[in-house]
Specification:
Length: 353
């Protein structure tokens, strides 16, 4: 499934053959990558205590023209990973690269022009927009700061109008303030501001979770359509696997700071290799006659300050083995470009299912 398939609807489509991306280490793909995270760790210091490791050994990549979905329960480290990917949070180990250039943590100095095409859409559109400034002015600032373009007032007004119309809003709203819009409209404005920088890669951090159901579908379709039209790459972070299934080309599953499975979206959906992925899919409600309540994963995510030994999922895993309690599993390639971090996973198992 490609991003363009969702430009107009959320219709279900037949599952393609599993795992089309080239193989390699956990989370990586072929040449032409825009964004690369290599063995990334992010830790938060605590006075008088050991640091909390929010992200551990995460590796993934995003290529031009694709949407990579990052899913997992709340508190698993998804947003921290996304913020580290754009330089808002410093990594404690590993590296983030954008078009081969190291992404440094943002500070007081201006970001290099080469990195300004790496942008982020935040979860709360009201918090990401300046409430004291008209939305047209904010988009115009993004044009000037993101691209370096020196436009006169008339040209800037035309460009702002075109961006607002691209995200489904009238050009006439440019003079209004953020509080005059709904949540879905504010998120469209935030997306227009990102597009004003002419990005090549966008990290969308839970961009639909704060919206109602109808606005969620509209914004998800909008983002998928933008990727299909412009060919930019997108890391789409969400706790809703059913939405990710509809818009993502590849899916990365995260649990308690670690990436536990990654592969082509329909392959991961139809033949999940990791017990946690199966639990996430099993928890999705399925409407229809005779449908049962979704299954519930027992227990809660452990305290990050006191992580369990061995596999981090073993206290909640329905398929736990004795070695899971003491040993840390490594990534196994279960299919082309499809990896699972589980002792029960076998090399090439997807090919024989």
């Amino acid at each position: 499934m490609t991003a363009s398939s969702l430009a107009s609807s959320f219709a279900s489509e037949p599952a393609p053959s599993p795992g089309s991306a080239p193989g390699g280490r956990m989370g990586t793909s072929g040449p032409g990558r825009l964004l690369e995270l290599d063995d990334l760790d992010v830790s938060y210091a605590r006075r008088g205590h050991a640091p909390v490791r929010a992200v551990i050994g995460a590796s993934l990549s995003v290529e031009a023209g694709e949407i990579v979905g990052l899913v997992g329960e709340s508190g698993c480290g998804k947003s921290t990973l996304g913020r580290a990917a754009v330089g808002l949070v410093p990594p404690s180990a590993g590296e983030v690269r954008y078009r081969g250039e190291r992404v440094e943590t943002l500070g007081r100095a201006a970001r290099s022009p080469e990195l300004r095409s790496l942008q982020m859409v935040f979860q709360d559109p009201y918090a990401s927009l300046n409430p004291r400034r008209r939305v047209g002015r904010q988009i115009a600032d993004a044009i000037r700061l993101g691209t370096g373009a020196k436009l006169d007032d008339e040209a800037a007004t035309r460009r702002v109008a075109a961006l607002l119309e691209r995200v489904g809003l009238s050009a006439a709203v440019a003079h209004r303030f953020p509080h005059e819009f709904s949540g879905g409209q504010c998120q469209r404005i935030a997306i227009a501001r990102v597009l004003a920088t002419e990005p090549s890669c966008v990290v969308a951090d839970e961009p639909i979770s704060a919206l109602d159901a109808s606005a969620q579908a509209q914004i998800a379709n909008l983002l998928a359509g933008i990727v299909a039209e412009s060919g930019l790459g997108m890391l789409f972070i969400s706790h809703d696997l059913s939405v990710v299934r509809k818009i993502a080309d590849r899916t990365v599953v995260m649990y308690f700071g670690r990436i536990v499975e990654t592969g082509a979206t329909e392959a991961v959906w139809s033949q999940p290799a990791h017990p946690y992925t199966r639990a996430l899919i099993g928890a999705i409600p399925r409407p229809g006659a005779g449908s049962a309540l979704p299954s519930e994963l027992p227990g809660d995510v452990p305290d990050p300050a006191r992580p369990p030994s061995g596999c981090r999922f073993h206290p909640r895993c329905p398929e736990v083995m004795e070695r899971c309690r003491t040993e840390d599993p490594v990534a196994i390639e279960v299919g082309p470009g499809w990896q699972s971090v589980c002792f029960r996973s076998q090399p090439g198992q997807a090919a024989v299912k």
